Structure formats: structure tokens, C-alpha cells
Amino acid sequence: MSEAPTLTDTDAAASTSLREFEARARAFLEEHVPRRDTVVVTDTMSAEVVANEQELQKKIYDAGFAAITQPKEHGGQGLGEAESMAWGALTAGYAVPRMLIAISHGMCGPIINLLGTPEQKAKYLPDLWRANTLFAQIFSEPGAGSDVAGLQTRAEKVDGGWLMTGQKVWTSNAQYCDYGVIVARTNPDVPKHQGITMFIINLRDPAVTIRPLRVATGEYPFNEIFIDSLFIPDSDRIGEVDKGWDAAVAMLRFERISIGTSSTKSTGPLSFEKLADVAREAGLAQDPAARAALVEAHVLEQGTDLLALRMREEVEAGIDLGPRGSIAKLAGASANFRVNEIISDIAGLSLVAWDGPGAAYPPLTKAFTGAPSSWTAGGTIEIQLGIVGERVLGLEKDPSVDRGVPFRDIRRSA
Ligand SMILES: Cc1cc2nc3c(=O)[nH]c(=O)nc-3n(C[C@H](O)[C@H](O)[C@H](O)COP(=O)(O)OP(=O)(O)OC[C@H]3O[C@@H](n4cnc5c(N)ncnc54)[C@H](O)[C@@H]3O)c2cc1C
Q1: What is the pLDDT of residue 1?
Q2: How far is the CA of 251 from the centre of ligand 1 (A)?
Q3: Distance from the CA of 171 to the center of ligand 1, in angstroms?
Q4: Coarse DSSP helix, strand, coil percentages of the chain, rounded to the nearest 5 percent
Q5: Ramachandran angles phi, psi of 201, nearest 5°
Q6: What range does the domain containing 350 cover?
Q7: pLDDT tens digit string along 133-182?
Q8: How many CB atoms lie within 10 A of CB 63?
Q9: How much is the pTM?
Q10: In this model, does residue 256 exceed pLDDT 80?
């Protein structure tokens, strides 16, 4: 007869330290962070929101609850996945900064940690994790969004570094950022994926002009960035020269995993609970079509939340999701698309009409008008379908007219 497994001393110590961590986290959250249902939680950054959230994020870091699994020598807490998961679960009901650090902590920090030199990690990571500095992701260009490998911003080798010139677009919250992780063409004589290099740039440099872009909601979530002969020291190059495509793909995977594994759907304005309230207010509680649509919204929410949970557990267990990260992004975006149709059927015109100038912009309207961005951000639905088809399911590759052609010989409009 086999003996029942016993708790080893190491297991017992780990579980005690996890319980201590959770107790500390609970006490910290109660004392320093408002509960989500007691404040208006905004996804929109403004100078005031950024300043307030930076202060809060610093407190979170100083108390030992940011960069939980990152190595201690570069400013992380050096703790395990169990603590990271516990913090994620405990903060679900609290207004901790999310948008503020989504790109810095979700993409830029991880890529510097993965590919950066020891000097880059020492120079950038401690301030990044503490939110003393904010980082932007600077990939998309006017002619290179889905086809980001077709980018035309160029960096030419000069004494001691590189001289960069070009234009970028859709850079989220760059007007509030200090640095950006950018990709630029360093060799036009090879096929487009082979002549790209990744750099860190200083967004406060006078050679960089950041112009915010206004969207339908009246907010400025994105920017155009014009770069005019910006000098970048070679010490700010991430990874090898001309190997920036691999670095960009790795960073986009961090983005899709971070989008796909975040489970805030059931707390957002388009959650089932909120939709059910809207249906009641519209007098549709007994309406069979509305009720069927609400059930559908609930099932979609459960499905995407469970998929996100499963993928998060795989990531926490050290399993590389690779291109499967695109499945979670696709599922979330497709569900969002359908839920947006459902809410427009239920709420009708009240979704886009509210009290006149000066009246608060209703969160539901904002979520409705902002939802289409979720099927574009981090790569469009069509691009994710291509990735899942080719790289997860092994289907035939899309035909390509520029495979193997040197970048300078590819026909383009400008
Ligand atoms: C909320 C949000 C935040 C963003 N933040 C950032 C950021 O911080 N940094 C950054 O660099 N970028 C950012 N972007 C830009 C984003 O990465 C691009 O919008 C996206 O990659 C699509 O590129 P595009 O807009 O140029 O569209 P296009 O590439 O021009 O696509 C237009 C349409 O054609 C389709 N299409 C294109 N190619 C194919 C193909 N091969 N097969 C089938 N269909 C295709 C697309 O799916 C889409 O429907 C953000 C976008 C959004 C919406």
C-alpha cells in the first residue's frame, strides 16, 4: 500500500509564506487602494490620472507588490508565480493602476528583461517597475500596422550609435511616457523581416515630436510620433542588429498574452451584470429576445474568462503559450464584438445620447464606442486568424508577394 503524500517542510514553509504574503496584500489594499465599486474607474489617461496613479503604483512597488516575479537584482521582488497569482486575484475588486502600467509592465519591461544587456536592465528596469518612468510601444506606422515588418522608419549607423528618422502612429499614451521601445529598419538590402532592429528611445529628446490624436469619444488615447535625426547610443539597442523582428514578435506575444489573460470582463461596463441592469431599466426584463441575448452574453463572458484563467495558469506554470496567445486575444475580441451588438439592441439610442455639454460621459457609452478598438489593438482579428491558422493549426500559409524580396525592391506607395 502506498503511503499518503505528506507535506514536506519546504511545502509547509512555502504555504506559510504565501499566507503571510496574502495577509500583507489584503491589509495594504484595504489601507491604500479604493475598492472598484466606490470610485469611477477610468481607462482614460490624463495628466492628473497619470500623476495620481504613478503615486499609487510607487506605493504598491515599495510595499513589495509590483514586478512580483522579476529578479531582485533588477528591481523585482524575486517571488514566485503563486504570489503573483494571489496578487492578481486579490486586486480584482480594487482600483489598482491597470492602463498606466499595461504597456510598461506587460510588454516593455519583459522584453528588456528577456533581451536587454545587464547595463540596460540596471539602468531602466528599477524605475520602470516602480513607475518612476513610463514606457511606450512604438511599432505601428501609417503604412505598417498589420504588416509591421513593412516599416520605413530607418536607423543608420553612425559613430557610437544610430541616427533615426521616421514617423510612427497609434502609440498609446506616448504623451505621458518617458521612453519607448521602437523598431526601425537598419538594412533595406535584405527581405523585410531580416533588416529590422529594436531600440530604446528617449521620448523627451528634442528630435522627437509627439502629437496626440483625438478619437470619437473626445479623448486622446493615441499619438503620432515624428522622429527627426534622433541620435541613439548603441548601448540602447535591444538585441542583435537586424534581428529586431524576432524581438518584436516576442514583445507582441507578451502583449497578446497580457490582453488575453486579463480577466476583468465580469467587472467592466459591458459585463453580464451591467447589461442585465440596462435591460431592466429599459423595461425589457420579461422580453424573451432580450433574455436570450443576456444568456448569450453571460456564456461568452464565462467562456472567455475561463480561457483567460487557463492560459494564465499555463503562463504561471512556466509553459510558453507561443502563438496560442492569439487564441485568447481572438476569443476576447470576438466575444466583445457580439456583446456590443447585444447592448446596442437592448439600450438602443440611449447608448449614444446623454445629457448635454458638461454632463458626465456614461461609462456604458464609452465602453460601446471604444469596443471596436479591442478587435484591432494588439493585431486585428484577421491577423490573429492567420496566426492561429498557420502557426497553431498548421494550415497552408497565406500567399505572399514579397517573400524573399529585398526591402528596397518591394513596391510601396511612399
Ligand atoms: C486601442 C489601440 C491601441 C494601440 N496601441 C498601439 C501602440 O501602443 N503602439 C503601436 O505601435 N500600435 C498601436 N496600435 C496600432 C495597432 O497595432 C494597429 O492598428 C493594428 O496592427 C492594425 O494596423 P492598421 O491600423 O494599420 O490597419 P491595417 O493593417 O491597414 O488593416 C486594415 C484592415 O485590413 C485587414 N488586413 C490587413 N492585412 C491583412 C491580411 N494579411 N489578411 C487579412 N486581412 C488583413 C486588417 O485586419 C484590417 O481589418 C493600437 C491600436 C489600437 C486600436
Answers
A1: 46
A2: 16
A3: 12
A4: 50, 15, 35
A5: -120, 155
A6: 261-392
A7: 999 999 999 999 999 999 999 999 999 999 999 999 999 999 999 999 99
A8: 15
A9: 0.90
A10: no
